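TEACHING EXERCISE
Course module: macromolecular assemblies
Task: Read the component lines below, then compare them to the predicted structure of the full complex.
Student: A.B.
Group: 4
Components provided:
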Amino acid sequence: MKNQKCKGMQDLLPNDMSRFRHIEDTFRDCCRNWGYQEVRTPTLEYLHLFTATGTLTPKMLSKVYSFLDWDGWSGERVVLRPDGTIPIARLYIDNLGREELARLFYVTNIFTFEGTGKQNRERWQCGAEFFGASRFTADIEVILLAEDVIRKLGIGNDKLQLSHAGLVRALLQEFKLSPAEEARMIDRILEGDWEALAKSGPADPESRRLMAALLNLKGKTSGFLRNVRASFPKTSPDFKSALEDFLAVTTLLDKFGCSYEIDIAAMHGFEYYTGACFQFTAGGEKIGGGGRYDRLVPLMSGGNIAACGFALYMDSMTPLLRPRKEENAKCRILVKGKGVTPEIAERCFALAASIRDAGYPAEIDFTDREESCFRWVIIISGSKRSRFTLKDCVQNRRRDSASVAEILRVVSKG
Amino acid sequence: MKDCQNGNIKFALPKGRFLSPTASLLDEIGLVFQGYSAKAKQYRVHSTRFPGLAAKILQEKDIPIQVAVGNYDLGICGADWIEEYLVKYPTGTLLKVACLNYGEGDIHVAASARGRITSLNEVSIKRSDCRIVSEYPNLSEVFALDLRMKRFRIFPVWGAAEAYPPEDADLAVLWGRSGAHIAAQGLISLEKLLPVSAFLVANRESLENKDLSHILMCFDSRLGAGPRIRVRNESARSGGSKGGIPSWRAKEINLALPDGHQQGPAARFLQRAGLTLQGYSEQLLRRRPSADLDWLGIKVIRPQDMPLQVANGNFDLAITGEDWLQEHLCRFPSSPVKKLFALGFGAVKIVAAVSQDMPADSIDDLRLLVQSGRLAPPKVASEYINIADRYLCDNRINPYRLIPTWGASEAFLPEDADMLIDNTQTGKTLKQHKLKALDVLFQSSACLIANKNSLASSRKKEKIKVVTHKLRAGLS
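Instructor-supplied answer key:
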């Protein structure tokens, strides 16, 4: 039969959903333990939320699903949510802006066009955002929360890479570009084109040395950053301030024994980052990322609110999880009717209801299909007076039971 | 050579602005198509040199999509329509083979010479909405995104984009021969987006799987010639001449009148109704004619664009066709546009038609053909894409493919489409092209439409009544 699924879209089958829910449940538990509250935003948002400088780059915007709604004669376009953070910032501004601090988390899908149709155009992510968090301690909080989730999911060999958007922006200032050129250069850097920065290097040798050092930054301790600071005593105040902030984050991470790699080039994708930013990789895949975005809420006319957050990419994490055993496999019960007479059907449904009321899942079947995946099979074959046949599929034994109570007693003993 | 001999190769040739230079080029390189000239009366022409090479004359706007979907192996059209397609569908199957080095003008971003915008910097820092009107909505969107406009709205129009700024749009993205040409329309060019040269384009699969070498070799002298480079930030401002352009003041009531085929009948109707206009008659077209009612502002735009413009409140009243109103309402069912009354001219039928060879005499027959698998998902060509979409859904034709066209849908049947949904006055054109109507969707004629909010406005309703009363007089 011809595949009728839309290109770039994916179906999640029972096994996929089991792992999906495992990620979701683990993430929710962790977030709640850290004091975060769950929110959900609509699938459709206005395009203009994402178009201003400081939100999404033109290249990312060229891949959004945007269209005119049924009442879109005014030309106002809507989009299928292309990013998780910006809608949450909008939600915060619209509803929670008066609260000094807000710790929010979400599980959501985002939509981005991908040309070949071989990769997902709908992706799932779980994210947490901390609004009103202006200090480096908040950066540490979201990094540790993300690490907590990854650890509890049992994803091994994950790697944390740190960068700092403030350092990159301060370096760009040395280039003395016009605002438009600087915006275009940031776009290229965010799209991973660091060569562009190297090619249009500044004229003075000190800035050139600084740029080379920054692009090659691959240290693993805050001490490394301290040495960088000592090597460049004449940097701009903005650069110094960003470096101090980065040092504060890495020093605290060192104290927690959190291993990381400093890689300035690891910052790409989102223009809204302004401070420390990070990404997690595992098995060669990027499984999450986040950072500080102090300008986003002000840009969206939400007041001078600092914020930071992260998202974990569920599609990338799912293949890294160990296969999960069916949760209810231990007590799966099948109520099987031998024949499909009204009496047998009535007895099957009534028995299944009693089993469910007692807290066990029960399926009903009237076919001859294989029963091996069940722990118990209860066979109903005759009139009201006839007894139930209880089959223990693990012990491979059969016994006749007189009543529902007797069945439940046996089942409860396992 | 095999494909050229066997009739396997199809070429899309442009109508309109590039027809004469393209015919000259083809003549020059020895690739003559019999009948391809300014006087062409048929859509299908054949190569005199390669018996297997057939061509069709199409609207230039249709050529990129027709080549991209594989209906044609090669085509020639302007860079503006190619880029308009490619910026939206960059991973498609349309490839630019060579710039043919003819064509003129550029696509400009322009603002009104009388408006407040004099540079793009002002646009990029503007915090409020920027309204952009254009025949090139995709190029306009890329421009707005590149400029990092915070908030913008794009109004796609079928033409006459120059008529909109400053009242009904902040910027127009439009073709202009030069800065002076733009200025003569009362605009100033803020940036040139793209030089408009003719290009040879090809379908990617055709290049991979067909032998096009003998045809491409004819273009040998042109292949490899680079396109003119995109110019950014090169202001083409030329002073924004204000001479010769009628002044426009904000008026209490704004009326849109049609250009094109409906201009003559509309002008006669208005004359009958006793509405005296300066600059709008059968022969004369000014984009901003004046009326003897000093509170009535008038602009001449495409009838296709009027319902949307009335919905947005740019106009209170407009004379358009019921077909275009219906097309708008199919797209925006709750739009605040209302038909006031029919004007009794421009009567056409909107029909669904197929080739006379198709074994179907009704839409029910067509559905059975599709359901039985005897007809692959039908390709339906129409300039009324929303009406067509609704009609096909309502009639349970499933699945189907819609091919948007810019008029002359009959040219697409039977090779490039299975059905058209288009207007016909007498049915003569259908017969000429060996087509038959399966169904009449509805009858359409010119009508007066209004913005519902304007009709309810205490400030406007009395004056609207004056205009409608006058126009009703024209009905008799």
